[in-house]
Specification:
The protein is of the alpha/beta class. It has 3 domains: about 5-55, Nucleic acid-binding proteins (OB fold (Dihydrolipoamide Acetyltransferase, E2P)); about 65-220, P-loop containing nucleotide triphosphate hydrolases (Rossmann fold); about 235-290, Probable gtpase engc, domain 3 (Ribonucleotide Reductase Protein R1, domain 1), CATH 1.10.40. Helix content is about 30%, strand content about 30%. The chain is built from 8 helices and 13 strands. It has helices at about 95-105, 125-135, 150-160, 175-185, 185-195, 235-240, 265-270, 280-290, and strands spanning about 5-10, 15-20, 25-30, 40-50, 50-55, 65, 70-75, 80-85, 110-115, 140-145, 165-170, 210-215, 215-220. The strands form 3 sheets. It has a 6-stranded mixed sheet with strand order 10-9-8-11-13-12, with helices on both faces. The radius of gyration is 21 Å and the shape is globular. About 35% of the residues are buried. The structure holds guanosine-5'-diphosphate and zinc ion. The site of guanosine-5'-diphosphate has 17 residues, from helix 4.
Length: about 300
């Protein structure tokens, strides 16, 4: 039988669900390989009426990773956009937001910050002040309310989503599921079907899945997580992923400056002048440290 193309819509261990036209096929990889990510375009061969084997992954346009000390994990492939979902309440983590921004920059993916629950009026001023830091760096911040202004939120987001492949990430409680359900009609049912197909009924929320709104508009839901390890990024990638470092790079006394404690460091002096926030520089420092701890 011939080889067909399809898009990986869910992954669980070495099992993948591939959407090929109107059909869904449960695919495995050959041997022990498990380097396929949700969003990958794959060429697969049918082995039984509803099963197949992945022969080849098409070259990826982008790849989003997270990693720990021991290994890196593919989050999704061929993304064009990353929506970082935060809320007016409960309080969100700047660490997670900045890590997601760094991952997006390093992966060549356009990030947006969605500030959800704008209806919680008393929490708005503080939250706006906190996201303003990211707006000043040039990242678009969108104010939405999935629960109390669903139609407006939909109207606001749909034009941004059209023709794009967008992943939503966020800490739990920010309203990511509410947004997904708003943007993807039938998302809950589709997720149950995907879980059943991958024999992972118990783990409904623990895997990444891709929803096709049409042939070229994809929305990817990732499990909520509290950590976003970036051990795989090198120092060179890190200094470029912090946008606000850009104007100062090349101005340090030493050409191989690490921007940590060197005399004559242009980045450190920008931190002192308040042009770069101490919080972002501290994260840079932490990420350089993580990068040096990686064991693979
Ligand atoms: P997730 O953990 O990020 O997937 O968040 P959920 O979508 O499960 O939402 C967490 C809680 O926030 C739920 O109780 C939602 O009803 C609530 N929520 C979601 N969106 C809004 C919103 O726009 N305004 C308010 N007030 N609550 C919201
Ligand atoms: Zn420096």
């Amino acid at each position: 039988m011939g080889v067909e193309a399809g898009v990986v819509i869910a992954a669980h261990g070495r099992h993948y669900l591939v959407q090929a036209g109107d059909t869904r096929v449960h695919c495995v990889t050959r041997g022990k390989k498990s380097d396929v990510a949700v969003g990958d375009v794959v060429h697969w061969k049918r082995t039984s009426p509803d099963q197949g084997v992945i022969e080849r992954i098409e070259e990826r346009k982008t790849l989003l990773y997270r990693s720990d000390q021991y290994k890196s994990k593919l989050l999704a492939a061929n993304l064009t956009q990353l929506f970082i979902v935060v809320a007016t309440e409960p309080s969100f983590s700047d660490d997670l937001v900045s890590r997601a921004l760094v991952a997006a920059e390093a992966g060549g993916i356009r990030p947006y910050i969605l500030l959800n629950k704008m209806d919680v009026a008393e929490a708005v001023p503080k939250a706006r002040e906190r996201v303003a830091l990211y707006a000043r760096l040039g990242y678009p911040v969108l104010e939405v309310s999935a629960r109390s202004a669903p139609e407006e939120t939909k109207a606001q987001l749909e034009p941004l989503l059209a023709g794009q492949s967008t992943i939503l990430i966020g800490q739990s409680g920010m309203g990511k599921s509410s947004l997904i359900n708003l943007l993807v009609p039938g998302a809950e049912l589709a997720t149950r079907e995907i879980s059943a197909a991958l024999d992972s009924g118990k783990h409904t929320t623990t895997f990444t899945r891709l929803f096709m709104l049409d042939g070229k508009t994809f929305i990817i839901d990732s499990p909520g997580f509290q950590e976003f390890g970036l051990y795989h990024l090198t120092e060179g990638m890190l200094e470029r992923a912090f946008r606000e470092f850009g104007p100062h790079l090349g101005n340090c006394r030493f050409y191989n400056c690490h921007h940590l404690a060197e005399p004559g460091c242009a980045i450190l002096s920008a931190v002192e002048q308040g042009e770069i926030t101490a919080m972002r520089h501290a994260l840079y420092q932490q990420l350089v440290h993580e990068s040096s701890q990686k064991l693979y």
